[in-house]
UniProtKB/TrEMBL annotation, chain A:
Keywords: Acetylation, Acyltransferase, Lipoyl, Mitochondrion, Phosphoprotein, Transferase, Transit peptide. InterPro entries: 2-oxoA_DH_lipoyl-BS, 2-oxoacid_DH_actylTfrase, 2-oxoacid_DH_E2_comp, Biotin_lipoyl, CAT-like_dom_sf, E3-bd_dom_sf, PSBD, Single_hybrid_motif. Its EC number is 2.3.1.-. The branched-chain alpha-keto dehydrogenase complex catalyzes the overall conversion of alpha-keto acids to acyl-CoA and CO(2). It contains multiple copies of three enzymatic components: branched-chain alpha-keto acid decarboxylase (E1), lipoamide acyltransferase (E2) and lipoamide dehydrogenase (E3). Within this complex, the catalytic function of this enzyme is to accept, and to transfer to coenzyme A, acyl groups that are generated by the branched-chain alpha-keto acid decarboxylase component. Residues 47-122 form the Lipoyl-binding domain. This is Dihydrolipoamide acetyltransferase component of pyruvate dehydrogenase complex. The lineage of its organism: Eukaryota, Metazoa, Chordata, Craniata, Vertebrata. It is found in: Mitochondrion matrix. The keyword Manganese does not apply. Gene3D superfamilies: 2.40.50.100, Chloramphenicol acetyltransferase-like domain, E3-binding domain. It catalyses: N(6)-[(R)-dihydrolipoyl]-L-lysyl-[protein] + 2-methylpropanoyl-CoA = N(6)-[(R)-S(8)-2-methylpropanoyldihydrolipoyl]-L-lysyl-[protein] + CoA. It comes from Illadopsis cleaveri (blackcap illadopsis). Residues 157-194 form the Peripheral subunit-binding (PSBD) domain. Pfam families: 2-oxoacid_dh (PF00198), Biotin_lipoyl (PF00364), E3_binding (PF02817). GO terms for cellular component: cytosol; mitochondrial matrix.
Automatic annotation (TrEMBL), chain B:
This is Lipoyl amidotransferase LIPT1, mitochondrial. It is an enzyme of class 2 (transferase). Its main location: mitochondrion. Signal peptide: none annotated. InterPro entries: aa-tRNA-synth_II/BPL/LPL, BPL_LPL_catalytic, LipoylTrfase_LipoateP_Ligase. Keywords: Acyltransferase, Mitochondrion, Transferase, Transit peptide. Lipoyl amidotransferase that catalyzes the transfer of lipoyl moieties from lipoyl-protein H of the glycine cleavage system (lipoyl-GCSH) to E2 subunits of the pyruvate dehydrogenase complex (PDCE2). Unable to catalyze the transfer of octanoyl from octanoyl-GCSH to PDCE2. In vitro, it is also able to catalyze the transfer of the lipoyl group from lipoyl-AMP to the specific lysine residue of lipoyl domains of lipoate-dependent enzymes but this reaction may not be physiologically relevant. The keyword Transit peptide applies. It catalyses: (R)-lipoyl-5'-AMP + L-lysyl-[lipoyl-carrier protein] = N(6)-[(R)-lipoyl]-L-lysyl-[lipoyl-carrier protein] + AMP + 2 H(+); N(6)-[(R)-lipoyl]-L-lysyl-[glycine-cleavage complex H protein] + L-lysyl-[lipoyl-carrier protein] = L-lysyl-[glycine-cleavage complex H protein] + N(6)-[(R)-lipoyl]-L-lysyl-[lipoyl-carrier protein]. It is found in: Mitochondrion.
Amino acid sequence: VCIHRVRSCSSIRFIKSKYVCVFDKSALKFSHQQRLFRTSPVSCGQIVQFKLSDIGEGITEVTVKEWYVKEGDSVSQFDSICEVQSDKASVTITSRYDGVIRKLHYSIDDIAFVGKPLVDIEIDPSKGVSPEEDVVETPPMSHEEHTHQEIKGHKTLATPAVRRLAMENNIKLSEVVGTGKDNRILKEDILNYLAKQTGAILPPSPKAEIVPPLRKTEAVPAAPKDRARRVPVPVSRPIAFSGKDRTEPVTGFQKAMVKTMSAALKIPHFGYSDEIDLTQLVQLREELKPLAEIRGVKLSFMPFFIKAASLGLLQYPILNASLDESCQNVTYKASHNIGVAMDTEQGLIVPNVKNVQVCSVFDIAVELNRLQSLGSAGQLGTSDLTGGTFTLSNIGTIGGTYAKPVILPPEVAIGALGKIQVLPRFNGKGEVFKAQIMNVSWSADHRIIDGATMARFSNLWKSYLENPASMLLDLK
Amino acid sequence: MVLQSFKNCLWLSCVLRTPKACFWSTAGGGLIIQSVSNDIYQNLAVEDWIHDHMDLEKQQILFLWRNSPAVVIGRHQNPWQECNLRLLRQKNIKLARRRSGGGTVFHDLGNVNLTFFTTRKKYERMGNLKLVVKALKALRPQLDVHVTDRYDILLNKQYKISGTAAKLGRTSAYHHCTLLCNADKLVLSSVLKSPYKGLKSNATPSVPASVKNLFEEDASLTSEMLLDAIAKEYAEQHQIDHHITLINPADETLLPGINNKTKELQTWEWVYGKTPKFSISTCLNMAYKDSVLDVKVNMDVKHGRIEACNIDLPEQWLPPELCIELVKSLTGSKFCPNEITTLVTTLLRVCPQDDELHSRWSLLCENMIRLM
């Protein structure tokens, strides 16, 4: 297998002894497609030591702070390789070559020296490497070798960086008009093509485009990921869907939800729904809102819902209970710690208002304000999030009518409130009037709660809200 | 060559088509711009944008900006080591990580920021700082200000009034520095003091220094005056008009892609996730009922997430399954109080409902969260 290679290697003239000839299998496969120029030293899979170039200001050493690549990664010219720091300056080191990283000479926090090797890059065999390691990062422009990209029989000239840009935007290179030398496709051509697609006017890239010497065939052993990423572009449509599946681990808020809901599975849920006429409550709230504002508190409907629920729980305490693991004992909780489902940037959290049974509607409003501002700032404490005994979820603020809420263990009931809609209803005289209707959907643990209990609780709660004055009778 | 002139034609035709391109190209070797925004993330994004997109060969750029209260840490720093994150959250002070190196600074409207953009070859910090000193002396000749070899500017040879950091890329570079005009020193000293113990890290440490406001030296000075004086000096040295162009960091047509950059700077992954690997080894002294418990905690945090965690509790103080669950939950989670609070309170839902157990659990968790 290597015989052919040995013969060609023997004719290599080594400029510097440190260049190593690597027997690259894939280079061998395509070797017959390469046009080998004998004027420059021909090596197979040459490993070049990329040295740390001058930082400026006479700096001789830096600390390596972060690697952007690891051994075995493919890099294109101008890709970021690592971040180094020297005396308050953070420097991004970019690659001079296309190739594969073979060795990192430093670990994180090591001191790296200017002029000494930073990484070893294995360069594609057909590229001739300029023998001098000049300090300037711009690569030499004197080489006249061509890059051929065989895509379905079309020969398209483009640098690897441009090819990557095209691939990322799912552009077929054969459809792009190249304006460079020999119809070479430049970065501007890709951008112009994109602009035509999206109709956007892109500003000119003010930076002078440095055209690196074109080289290598597709022969470079591209990492398998490159092949997998090559999505076949349909011929007729100009814009193709370039979405990719993405897998992430479940952490944080999602993990919490997984735990809670998996535990909730053990609870046999039953649902009970009803419709509440909030016409009177809407009016009442309008009257009370300015009073609350004077006291510096935002008054929503929730404090009324929560207080009414607590009054209901006084009559039906089993809904404020907890069933133990073995289903042997039911604990009737003395405090009504009513949880309020809250939607934050990170996800769902359920803080609770403590001891609603001794709170006024205004107290509840104050506490809700506090929990809401802490919740949106991501600063809720453990005591705010534990000890809940009953939960209400006001999903209606986002939308929806009927829902099927999931009970949060160790509780045994939960209510989901839909949105308030203006609907036609009949009054006592048989006339149609505009009613403010909201739907409620309860879920309860059927192991200890029966339908009748839930229905009676719901009726009581409903009567308090449909006729708010009746709450006054039972307020403690 | 044919290639070169063809490219010039392309560029010119684009210039004619898009008038905003004229914004960036001025006659002369320099451009002075000032941000209309006081948002730290937007302003840092402008720096990124200029660094990534502008050709600084023909003209250098001076960028002037000020921010509402924020703490800005260097690229390779550890926020837990550098500042009081608890206090920042309470006071609603933003935390940002910049892309340049160096130490931690506190910004508010009494602090002026200057960024000098040049090509990588022309990168030279001393010259820039000398320019600033020259401008200050021109404004108030009696000011005793000078540049140290650590690239600080000292007032009266004692007090630091400016700190420096820099970022070098492939072809361009920038050097930015602060200038204390009238910042709130009380807030500054309280937020820059870290309460977190037992941290072991190779992150770049900040070097604390005594600071003073220029305002304290000369009460007639304002931030606007300083900005103007420095712009004037820059204009003179670059032989351009003393004209400051205002830019809006939210303007997507002028700075295409800027909003994405702004968003990226605000992500948790950037601000906290870029913290170099560190470990915590500390002892929680928990007062429980009549005794004090010593709980040894060891954690390894990488990319801002808990990689490994070990909690040494007295035997049977908490049921072992619960301890295992706690460690399992913590591992892989963000080292973030909000996330950990959510996780640990959730765990309480699925364990035996025992008041004693709950209070012990809450005590432990609250102490753990205080580490973050």
